[in-house]
Amino acid sequence: MRVEIDSEPQRTRKQIQHFISIGRFKKARLIASDLISNYPEYPYAYYDMAVCEFYLGRVDNSIELCQRSLECGMKPLAVYIMMMIYHNEKGDYDSVDQYYSSINEISSVEADVLALYGYSLWKRGRKEEGIRILNEAFSKECDNTLILQYLLLTSKRRKEKNQIKELMDIYMNTGASEKSKLLFLGRSEAYLGNWREAKKNYEKVMSIDPMNDEAKYFLNMMEVEENIKKLGLFVFLLAAALYLKFSDGRIIKFFSLLPILLYLIFVVVFIHKKKSF
Amino acid sequence: MDKIELINKLIQANPKDSNAWYLLGLEHSQNNNISEALKAFSEALKYCDDSVKSEIITALSSLSEASDLSKYTTYTDKSGDSINFNKDSNIEKEEDEQISEELEENEDSNTVIPLRVIEGKRRGHISLDEDKETNITFSDVGGLDELKETIRMKIIKPFSTPGLFEKFKKKSGGGILLFGPPGCGKTFIAKATAGECRASFIPVHITDILDPYLGVSSRNIKDIFTNARTKKPCILFFDEIDTIGYSRAKLTGEHMRPIIDQLLVEIEGIESSTDKMLIIGATNMPWDVDPALRRPGRFDRLIFVMPPDVNARKEIFALKLRGRPIEDIDYMELARRTELYSGADIENVVELAAENVIDSIMKTGVERKISMKDLILAIDKTKPSTLDWLKTMETYIKYGNSSSMFSDVDMFLKKYKRYLGG
Predict the structure, then answer these.
(1) B281-293 average pLDDT score
(2) Under an 8 Å CB criterion, which residues of B touch A?
(3) CB-nearest partner of A203 from B207, B287, B399
(4) Of B284, B378, B43, B83, residue with least CA distance to A210
(5) Suppose B386 and one of B46, B181, B234, B354 were both cysteines; which one would form an S-S bond, judging by CB atoms 3.0 to 4.6 Å apart?
(6) Does B395 sit within 8 Å of A179, measured CB to CB?
(7) pLDDT top residue among A207 and B232
(8) C-alpha torsion sign, points A49, A51, A55, A59
(9) Do B246 and A176 touch (CB under 8 A)?
(10) Residue B86: its pLDDT value, please?
(11) Does A169 reside within a domain?
(12) Do B211 and A15 touch (CB under 8 A)?
């Protein structure tokens, strides 16, 4: 279906793209859905709706919609890239490989596609190959925010503190939004173990986007940590009191250690959770 | 004619001198040379800044009124859809074709075409049906007395009786931001405010602004304001202002920036050029509104549209149950049980109760009416949708250090802390 720029579907698409760009995926999806009912042969409507479905957590729908957009005549390159992202999210790595080679056949691979493929290899356990490709993507386009984010994730796993610091510096000089920069900083500081700094950055994120899930999760975690610390003192006092109360040699006095034991298990679980952030 | 020659020389020296073009227009209009005057004014409009723009537009309006050139007037109306928005798109298309044909004819005969009066074609589609004095007033808004009083003091009185306010150099125009949870009647209140002010109500939505062509979206904003300035006293209502003036700190792309910048420029223009024009923005995501828009001189008066109070809820229940088969309904009791429910939530409760009654009739075959029991059951099954909004607002105030800006929300949150799980 050939559509002129100044046509109804294109004007409506502009609205969809606008709502996607400001993160209003439900609203964008609603408009895309109307557009599909009015112009069932308009390929971009399916493509845009696929993006919305992806962000709303319905990856299978995204894949189906992308296929429909291809059937309606959408140029394959953009669709293949999105398909790579969707299949990577789904963990269907065979399809990722397939789409990657299809992209290779029709065009020279862009840096972010290369990075996506490298990250996909990393995720499935082919660490060295993944890092090599990620580095290749980085050398092609060192200020691409997507590549920097993938690199940050892999650096965290490899505990490369210097690289994390370097990535922070580079990210700050990109054209990313203020919110995105703060999130990157918060994440990086958390990976470095600078929890206080990370908290400050996430608090700043919350001050401009109180609905941000990542910041909310982190700050809740920090709040739990504070409460655990407060609880610790109480638990030790309780244990001491119980021990003194039953200090006449009865076996029951050892039960006073139970709160401490439970508390320590709780602390270990929390530390594990915190480290896996 | 010497004067005209002199101005022409000035223009030759600096073709972008809007004042010279404006003076030339005035001279031509005095000499009844309408077409030349129109041409000069259109050039002046091209290069002028906001402070002079209103004068040029006034001169243009008086020119079209004074002239008896019906043909020219027709052209101006058709082409200047930046002024006139109420064209049906199909009619507009036909008319555009007609104009272009006539244009070609005119080109052949070397006549000056007043089509150039306001350059550029507005691509948005704002229906003029809505651009009228609204009949809704505060008497149509149930309850919310506190809010109505706030609006009366902050908006209506300065707008309708500016005398005292002028004496104390208190502005009567400018921007007001209505914010609150979704479904609590922000749009309705804005319309009622316009009704109370007896001003034209011009609603604007993001769909009226966005255009696939580069640069046209920001031009649409400019045109909307130009149109509004010709319709004073008026209220320009930006519904979902957060989608237009989205926080730049969160924007990754650059595509929105020109739109926000233009909006800022135009609002500042209002501040300097008129006081019989009010801009009301409504949003349920105040944290997404660019902070620059909330600075003094822009949307500096923030009004919290809270969920309906007990009296308002009572009236909403009565309204929603009107015309349905009901028996023994204690509206006050229903209102008491639906603390923090929005109008939309109450509608949902009524729908749910009606559905349950229909279900039971289908099952038993015995017809009955909607009773208190059905409604209470429906209330028990639902929860207020405003809770999420209030929790987000609580977070925003906590981390954004904005408790002074949102002090009334802060007080409201403290009052209903028990509902928020705090």
Answers:
(1) 92
(2) 123, 206-207, 210-213, 243, 246-253, 255-256, 287-288, 392-393, 395-396, 398-402
(3) B399
(4) B284
(5) B181
(6) no
(7) A207
(8) positive
(9) no
(10) 36
(11) no
(12) no
Contacts 24+ apart (CB under 8 A), A183-191: A183/A212, A183/A214, A183/A215, A184/A148, A184/A149, A184/A152, A186/A214, A186/A215, A186/A218, A187/A152, A187/A214, A188/A152, A188/A164, A190/A218, A190/A277, A191/A152, A191/A155, A191/A156, A191/A164
Thinking of the domain B310-381, which architecture would CATH place it in?
Answer: Orthogonal Bundle (1.10)
Q: Where are the domains of chain B?
A: 2-116, 132-304, 310-381, 386-420
Distance CA B327, CA B309 (A): 24
Residues of B within 8 A of A9 (CB-CB) are none
Residue A240 counted as domain residue: yes
Contact at 8 Å (CB) between B303 and B147? yes
Which pLDDT score is estimated for B275? 63
Residue of A nearest to B388 (CA): A211
**Residue A234 is assigned to a structural domain of this protein:** yes
For B338-394, the pLDDT digits (tens) are 999 999 999 999 999 999 999 999 999 888 999 999 999 999 999 999 999 999 999
Residue B400: list chain A partners with CB under 8 A.
206-208, 210
For residue B302, which phi and psi values (nearest 5 degrees)?
Answer: -100, 130
Residue among A15, A178, A209 minimizing CB distance to B210: A15
What class does CATH assign to B132-304?
Answer: alpha beta
Do the chains contact at A22 and B288, CB–CB below 8 Å? yes
Mean pLDDT by 10 residues, chain A (277 residues): 71 92 94 95 95 95 95 92 94 94 89 93 91 94 93 85 93 92 95 93 94 93 91 87 75 77 89 81
Q: Which fold has domain B2-116?
A: 1.25.40
B361's CB contacts (< 8 A; 6+ apart) are: B367, B368
Do A14 and B249 make contact, defined as CB atoms within 8 angstroms?
Answer: no
Q: What is the pLDDT of residue B63?
A: 66
